[in-house]
């Protein structure tokens, strides 16, 4: 059997980039980006996810390590004893 040659994706990308640069140099314009094919619900979901992530990042950045440890210790102290690890064995 004859093996199929694998396409070199890296070289293909370089050729595409060179062709785009050549088109721009000749006075052509850059092709417009692909149309957004997402539905309205998908766009709203992405916007909301971005807002939520930004809010999370801001809250994490505003706390120092000492504050995070303090909050975690408070959380642990509020847990019931049910979550404690029981002693096993003698001693």
Write the layout of secondary structure elements.
Elements: H1 9-25, H2 40-62, H3 65-78
Written description of the protein model:
- The structure is a single chain.
- The chain has 91 residues and is mainly α.
- The chain contains 3 helices and no strands.
- Helix content is 59%, strand content 0%.
- It is elongated, with a radius of gyration of 28 Å.
- It starts with 8 loop residues before the first helix and ends in a 13-residue tail after the last helix.
- The model has no long low-confidence stretch (mean pLDDT 80).
In short:
With 91 residues, the chain is an all-alpha fold. The chain has helices spanning 9-25, 40-62, 65-78. The protein is built from 3 helices and no strands.
The coarse silhouette is elongated
User: Which radius of gyration do the C-alpha atoms yield?
Assistant: 28 Å
The major beta sheet can be summarized as: none
List the secondary-structure elements in sequence, H or E: HHH
User: Into which percentage range does the β-strand content fall?
Assistant: under 5%
What is the share of helical residues?
55-70%
Mean pLDDT: 80
Count of discrete alpha- or pi-helical segments spanning 4 or more residues? 3
Q: What's the total number of strands? A: 0
